[in-house]
Amino acid sequence: MLSFFPKKHVENWLKRDRKVMNKGEFIMSPGEQLVYILVKGTAQIFHLHPDGKECVIGLAMPGECIGILELFSQREQKRFTKALTQTEVIALTFDEVKKVITETPELSMFLLHYVTERLEETLEILEQVAYGKVEERLLFLLNKLAEKDQSQGEFIRLPDYLTHRDLAGMIASTRETVTFLMNKFLQVGTLVQIDKTLWLRISE
């Protein structure tokens, strides 16, 4: 996403001090008037229910701007962002990001496309949580998380940083259930393990 902003602004932003966040630390909470450039690492975006359960609605990767959706909303926000790995972020104020968007009309179409894609992804995730069986939800998530540029034959690599507890939180299940299903996937060949790294069989 960052590549769509004018180069001169991006270069200036990347020269700023970076904040290092460890896994589990919150990057963004509701009410902040900031957009965070994710320079390094992976983060999860989620809603927090009153009972404390997290509903994960997406992942943020390097080059993405966390909080860009909040920039255009007048509603009370409920989205949190938490580091899944050690991350580095750069904070920008709403005003300076809005100024760049105003001065760069061609950004409007890209942002419209970006917002539409995020909405479609969120609806897809919520549909799986609402109607899919736990096993189906886990397979759906693993396919989403798989590193498509890292493949060996008919298998694609899964990220090393995710724990069973992380996966359980993303599919509204329990760690014990995820552990059981991951072992089942290993037994039937849906997953293979090579040097402590898991590989997922490519779905047809």
Strand content: 25-35%
Strand elements, count: 12
Corresponding CATH superfamily of the largest domain: Jelly Rolls
Which regions contain 5 or more consecutive residues with pLDDT less than 50?
A: none
Main beta sheet: strand number and arrangement?
4 strands, antiparallel
In N-to-C order, the SSE pattern is HEEEEEEEEHHHEEHHEE
How many structural units, i.e. domains? 2
CATH level 1 class label of the largest domain? Mainly Beta
Spatially, the strands of the biggest sheet line up as 1-8-3-6
* Broad shape: globular
What is the CATH architecture annotation of the largest domain?
Answer: Sandwich
Please describe what this structure looks like.
There is one protein chain. With 204 residues, the protein is α+β, with helices and mostly antiparallel strands. The protein has six helices and twelve strands. The chain has a four-stranded antiparallel beta sheet. The two termini are 29 Å apart.
Spell out the blueprint of helices and strands.
Blueprint: H1 7-14, E1 19-21, E2 26-28, E3 34-40, E4 43-48, E5 54-60, E6 65-66, E7 79-83, E8 87-93, H2 94-103, H3 107-131, H4 134-145, E9 147-152, E10 155-157, H5 164-170, H6 175-188, E11 191-194, E12 197-201
Antiparallel strand pairs: 1-8, 2-7, 3-6, 3-8, 4-5, 4-7, 9-10, 10-12, 11-12
Helix pairs in contact: 5-6
